[in-house]
Amino acid sequence: MRTLENCKTFGIYVMSYKRADKILTQDLFEYCTYVVREEEAEAYRASGVRNLLVIPKDCPCWNFMDTLWWTIWNTPEDVIFIADDDIKYFSYRTDKATPITKDNYRNPVLTATEEIERIGCLLSDLNLGMAYDGPQKALYCYDKEFGFKGMCGHCRWINKSGLKAKYDYKDVASSDIDMVFQELLLNRITIQPKYFLSDAGSMETNKGGVTMSRQQTIDLRLEMENKWWPYYEYDVKKNIGKINIKR
User: What is the pTM of this model?
Assistant: First the structure.
C-alpha cells in the first residue's frame, strides 16, 4: 500500500490462477500483491511470490469476474490497480511504441510503477470509477492521450469511492465491458490511457481450464449486445465489438 499525492491509499494487485510455475508480472512493479486461491497459496509462496491476498476455500469465486469483484471488495486501499498475471512488460505508445524495459529505461520498474500510480491519482482526482488500458497495440490506435470509452486490455484501475458499477453473478452479460457500460451510464465517462499499454498473452490458457472457448466468448458478446443494444454491437465473423456512445 502507498499513499498518492492526493493522500489516497493505493495498491497493486495481480489476479492469478494455476500459474504458480510461471510468475511473470510480479517483478514489473515496485510492490504488488497476488490474489490467489487458498489451495494454491503455498505453491505461489514456493515460487517466490512475496505478498498474497488469499481467497478462502469456501468463497464462491469461480471465474474472472467473481475474482475481480472479490478483489475490489476485499482490499483496504481507496484506489487499486488490478493486472493480469501474464503481462511481460509495459509500453509507451504515441507515434512509436517504446517498451518500458532495461533497453530503454534505467529503471523500468520505477517508471512503470510511477505511471500506474499517476493514472490512479488522476482517476481519484476526477472522482471517476474505472480506468483500463486497451487490447490493441497497433500504432494507428493511438489518436489521443486518453479516451473516455473502449474495450478493456490486461489492466484496470478502480477508484472505490467513484465506482458506480455493480456486480450480479446471475447476470449472463457480466464482464469487464459490462462494467464499462455501467460506468458510462452512471458516471458518463471512464478513462482509457491510450499512451500506456501492457504487453501480455504469452499464456493463452489456464491449466485449470477456465479460459473461455471461442463459442463461449461469442455467447458472452451476444448477451452483451442483447443487454446494451443499440449502444453495443458485436460482429461475430470479425470477433469485433463496437461501443456506439458519443460525447
Answer: 0.92
